[in-house]
Write a structure and sequence with these properties.
By secondary structure, this protein is of the alpha+beta class. It is 20% helix and 17% strand. The chain has six helices and ten strands, in the order ββαααββαβαβαββββ. The strands form three sheets. Strands 6-8-7-10-5-9 form a six-stranded mixed sheet. A two-stranded antiparallel ribbon has the order 1-4. It has a two-stranded antiparallel ribbon with strand order 2-3. Strand 7 and strand 8 form a beta hairpin. The protein is globular, with a radius of gyration of 24 Å.
Length: 247
C-alpha cells in the first residue's frame, strides 16, 4: 500500500439548473422521498429537509464561497482549487484501527468472516427458487416504463426459468405462472432460457405496478430485509414459490 498517497484527482462540482416547471404530476426525486417518508410515518428531520437547505449545506461542506445562484452563474468549480486532491494522503481510514483492514474484528463481531473469502448462499429449500431481478436493457430502473414504445418492446412481465425447472414444474414456454412469497403473489408469463441457472428464476425490474395486472410488481414480494454488512437491499436473496396459474 506504499503508493496509496499517490492517488489523486481534481473534483469538479457544477450547478444543474431547472429548465422548466414540472409537467403534470411529475416531481423531483427529493420531493418523492419526502412524500414517501410522510406516508410511511417516518419522522427523521433529515428526510424532510428542503432542497435549498440541502444545497446550502453541501456548498458549505465543500468550502464554496458563495450561494447556489453564484454557482449557477459560474457554472462549476474545483473543490480542491488548483491543487490535486490526494486521496487518503494521511493514510487514515474510517476503520477501528485507522488502517485498511484485511482481517476485520468488526466483521467477525457481525458473524461474518474475519477475512474475505468466496462463499455462496445455501441452495433454496425444496420447492423454492432464488429470484433475480436485474435491470432490463430497455429501461433505466423504472424511468420511461410508461413509454408506449418501451411497453411494446418489452411486452408482458416475464419470469425466465431453465428448461429442467420448467419441465419439473409442468410449465410451458409462454404459459402463465404464479410467483409468490408469504407476502404476495403475482402472475407472470413463463419464458425458458439456457442462460438461467437451475433453482434460479429471473424477472426484470422497472415496471410500473399501476400498469400491471393486479396493480403490483416484484417489489411487493420482498419483505424489505437488509443485507448483512452494508444494510443494502437483499432483493437478490429473495426466495419464491412458483406454480402454473390455476393450480
Amino acid at each position: 500500500m506504499d503508493d496509496i498517497a499517490g492517488s489523486y484527482m481534481n473534483l469538479t462540482v457544477g450547478a444543474q439548473s431547472k429548465v422548466r416547471e414540472p409537467i403534470g404530476e411529475s416531481l423531483s426525486n427529493q420531493e418523492i422521498f419526502r412524500r414517501l417518508a410522510a406516508a410511511l410515518g417516518v419522522e427523521e428531520p433529515a428526510l424532510f429537509e428542503s432542497d435549498a437547505s440541502v444545497i446550502s449545506t453541501l456548498l458549505q461542506q465543500m468550502s464554496y464561497d458563495g450561494s447556489f445562484a453564484d454557482l449557477q452563474a459560474q457554472g462549476f468549480f474545483y473543490v480542491n482549487g488548483d491543487e490535486p486532491l490526494i486521496l487518503h494522503a494521511d493514510r487514515q481510514f474510517s476503520t477501528d484501527s485507522g488502517r485498511i483492514e484485511v482481517a476485520s474484528a468488526r466483521a467477525e463481531s457481525m458473524d461474518l468472516p474475519r477475512v474475505p473469502h468466496a462463499r455462496v448462499d445455501a441452495e433454496p429449500p425444496a420447492g423454492q427458487f432464488r429470484l433475480l431481478s436485474p435491470a432490463s436493457r430497455w429501461r433505466l430502473n423504472d424511468e420511461y416504463a410508461n413509454d408506449p414504445a418501451i411497453q411494446r418492446r418489452t411486452g408482458e412481465a416475464e419470469l425466465w426459468l431453465c428448461a429442467a425447472d420448467a419441465a419439473a414444474l409442468g410449465v410451458a414456454d409462454g404459459a402463465s405462472v404464479e410467483v409468490s412469497t408469504e407476502l404476495h403473489s403475482l402472475q407472470l408469463v413463463a419464458g425458458i432460457s439456457d442462460r438461467v441457472l437451475p433453482v434460479t428464476v429471473l424477472s426484470y425490474k422497472g415496471r410500473w405496478p399501476k400498469l400491471e395486472p393486479g396493480g403490483i410488481g416484484l417489489n411487493a414480494l420482498h419483505k424489505g430485509e437488509k443485507s448483512d454488512m452494508t444494510e443494502g437491499t437483499s432483493v437478490h436473496g429473495m426466495l419464491v414459490s412458483i406454480s402454473p396459474s390455476g393450480l
